[in-house]
Design brief:
9-stranded mixed β-sheet, 6 helices, alpha+beta, 3-stranded antiparallel β-sheet, 30% strand, 230 residues
Length: 230
């Protein structure tokens, strides 16, 4: 983890500090080697939240686009269940940055647990994913007047197929600079078959610009954009 409680305050790992997990209050050890950025670890490989994914540089780069107080936030449901959100905005949007494989059952559990969830999936983990995606994108049908929006054959790209039944917004990061790809929501016929070229700033800025304002700018944007394929 990037943050632990030190004397009641969230701190990044540094040599000599003694930390406490903000999730379960167990002691944590600062890991400050030369090969990785400093991080906090539980003793003896203990995992406090079974949904928590080992943090990679890819995770940290995405999380760093948001204010520190939004990163690694403990989210608690009305039933008392709690999990650590990668990012939780002031409007309650939760970003989960998914690098490792995830079962359908766990993904559905997270979809249900977080009422306003956004997935960002690392599309570079498997070498075949981007070529397969590029093929279906190239063969897709552009929506009239919108070259950045296409109707594609989801079934011909395993990565898209894995996420097609997800009811929450899903974005794919293929490591192509600022561009990311958005798997748009299901249409009225229940199918999910539209992809839009998007950018990191398009995804992040509405949350930052709406910070501390009453209006949920991203919810409005999401509704207006999704109407293009409804």
């Amino acid at each position: 983890m990037r943050y632990a409680l030190v004397d009641g305050l969230r701190r990044e790992a540094e040599r000599g500090l003694k930390g406490e997990c903000q999730f379960d209050h167990h002691s944590m050890i600062p890991k400050c080697g030369n090969k990785r950025r400093p991080y906090w670890a539980h003793r003896a490989g203990y995992a406090c939240d079974h949904w928590w994914d080992n943090e990679t540089q890819w995770h940290r780069d995405w999380k760093s686009l948001f204010p520190t107080e939004w990163q690694e936030v403990v989210h608690k449901s009305e039933s008392g269940e709690k999990h650590i959100a990668d990012v939780k905005t002031d409007k309650g949007w939760v970003f989960e940055f998914q690098n490792s494989p995830i079962s359908i059952e766990e993904r559905q559990s997270r979809d249900s647990f977080y009422s306003k969830l956004i997935w960002v999936v690392n599309g570079t983990r498997r070498k075949k994913d981007f070529p397969e995606f590029a093929k279906v994108w190239g063969e897709g049908r552009p929506i009239v007047g919108k070259g950045w929006l296409r109707k594609v054959r989801i079934s011909e790209c395993p990565l898209l197929q894995e996420w097609a039944n997800c009811d929450t917004p899903v974005f794919f990061d293929f490591g192509t600079g600022e561009n990311i790809l958005w798997l748009l929501p299901k249409c009225r016929d229940g199918k999910r078959e539209h992809i839009a070229i998007f950018t990191r700033p398009n995804l992040v800025q509405p949350h930052l610009e709406g910070k501390d304002q009453e209006i949920d700018e991203f919810a409005k944007f999401l509704k207006d954009f999704s109407a293009l394929v409804s």
